[in-house]
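User: tokens in, sequence out, please.
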């Protein structure tokens, strides 16, 4: 049941629906099914925003907030003539993603976790109290660049800071080529700039207590998301947001995420290079193409570190993220190989059991 009327098209377009998504839906046999966008995922069930309103549906496949899906309406009141009162709505198909914000699972394994799908802009939120935590910003920028979205660094709670310009300049050194904005959701200073940067589907990421939900509420113009206090002792906040959730607003849609204590990278080499374009550009000037940037003659990277034009901390951060990504890739290869061996053993056992039964 693809949208046909102008009113339904305008409703879905608020969530990011366009002609390309409609063509994908048609290719996935969308007849009789409701197109919609996942607004929340919760233990095998999802909230889907459709032209007929919010639908609670079962979802047998692992989806992510921001996914475009086709819903079998079942007995949903808004399902239309194809609905079956005896069946609950369920997700019949997840449309291919354009972009995906992915991190390694917090368990430390090499598996990936999709934080949000079909994202256009990533607002990397940094609370003003967290001055000097550039390593986290670099890591989140690598994550954002790898997703295919456009990152923007947002320094929050600037009403508590005197030297705002200095803090922005410090963050800019760790975010080459990335727009760095300062905002106070309390006073409204800088809010228009952030709203202008929040294009399309915008996801807010950052640590607990960064003010993501407060900033989202300010952008939405209403208290739509719960907010919590930050401990004065260490500047950390509780996970007020416990679910990733998508909320429409005038400029598109916002995705609020729980605070990220750990941000593991997986298959993110391109994102790391984009987050460290200054280092990559220096490496291109080395005498040898396979320079390890250690003791080789003509190493432009080591020369920049010795001259102080490239902070050694930043060079070490780049190397650390690359090592982590390589380790995750190796773990992924090992895990996949182990899974293949496991499947092979299962098949072999089943075949042997069948042969024994035949020989009886």
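Assistant: Sequence out:
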């Amino acid at each position: 049941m693809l949208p046909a009327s102008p009113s339904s098209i305008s409703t879905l377009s608020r969530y990011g629906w366009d002609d390309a998504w409609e063509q994908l839906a048609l290719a996935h046999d969308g007849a009789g099914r409701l197109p919609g966008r996942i607004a929340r995922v919760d233990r095998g069930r999802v909230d889907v925003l459709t032209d007929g309103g919010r639908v609670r549906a079962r979802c047998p496949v692992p989806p992510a907030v921001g996914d475009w899906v086709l819903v079998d309406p079942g007995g949903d009141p808004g399902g239309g003539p194809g609905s079956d009162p005896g069946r609950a709505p369920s997700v019949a198909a997840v449309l291919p993603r354009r972009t995906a914000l992915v991190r390694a699972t917090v368990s430390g394994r090499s598996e990936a976790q999709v934080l949000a799908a079909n994202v256009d802009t990533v607002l990397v939120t940094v609370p003003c109290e967290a001055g000097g935590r550039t390593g986290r910003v670099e890591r989140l920028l690598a994550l954002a660049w790898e997703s295919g979205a456009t990152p923007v660094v947002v320094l929050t709670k600037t009403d508590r800071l005197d030297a705002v310009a200095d803090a922005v300049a410090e963050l800019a050194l760790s975010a080459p080529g990335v727009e760095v904005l300062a905002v106070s959701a309390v006073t409204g200073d800088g809010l228009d700039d952030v709203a202008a940067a929040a294009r399309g589907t915008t996801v807010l990421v950052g640590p607990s207590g960064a003010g993501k939900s407060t900033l989202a509420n300010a952008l939405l113009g209403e208290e739509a998301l719960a907010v919590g206090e930050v401990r004065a002792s260490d500047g950390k906040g509780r996970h007020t947001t416990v679910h990733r959730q998508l909320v429409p607003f005038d400029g598109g849609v916002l995705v609020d995420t729980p605070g990220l204590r750990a941000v593991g990278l997986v298959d993110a080499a391109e994102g790391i290079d984009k987050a460290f374009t200054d280092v990559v550009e220096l490496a291109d000037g080395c005498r040898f193409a396979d320079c390890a940037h250690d003791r080789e003659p003509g190493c432009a990277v080591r020369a920049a570190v010795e001259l102080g034009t490239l902070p050694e901390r930043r060079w070490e951060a780049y190397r650390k993220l690359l090592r982590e990504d390589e380790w995750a890739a190796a773990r992924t290869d090992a895990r996949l190989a182990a899974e293949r061996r496991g499947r092979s053993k299962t098949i072999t056992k089943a075949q042997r059991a069948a042969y024994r039964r035949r020989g009886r």
